[in-house]
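2024-03-11 09:14:02 INFO worker-7 job=invfold-0412 stage=load source=structure_tokens
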């Protein structure tokens, strides 16, 4: 197994530990750190392992950190709707 895949597994373990945190600011801070670390890691996994493995890693990240991505989508949609009014 390559180094990026090993780091991705550690990232998944860290994300699951962060999910056990009580609700509040700590969870959102952990999500921000995980996203900041996960984006370059996802790029590295995709670069070294190919697009299909990168897509699987992206799906795993979305399944773990679904709420920040949902809130980002809602925020972007509200910004776009305000712009078109």
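2024-03-11 09:14:09 INFO worker-7 stage=emit residues=85
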């Amino acid at each position: 197994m390559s180094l990026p895949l090993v780091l991705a597994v550690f990232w998944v373990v860290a994300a699951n530990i962060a999910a056990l945190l009580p609700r509040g600011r700590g969870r959102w801070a952990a999500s921000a750190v995980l996203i900041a670390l996960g984006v370059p890691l996802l790029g590295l996994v995709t670069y070294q392992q190919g697009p299909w493995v990168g897509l699987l890693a992206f799906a795993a990240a979305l399944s773990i950190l679904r709420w920040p991505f949902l809130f980002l989508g809602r925020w972007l949609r509200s910004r776009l709707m305000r712009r078109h009014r």
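2024-03-11 09:14:09 INFO worker-7 stage=report msg="The CA atoms of residues 4 and 45 lie 5 Å apart."
2024-03-11 09:14:10 INFO worker-7 job finished
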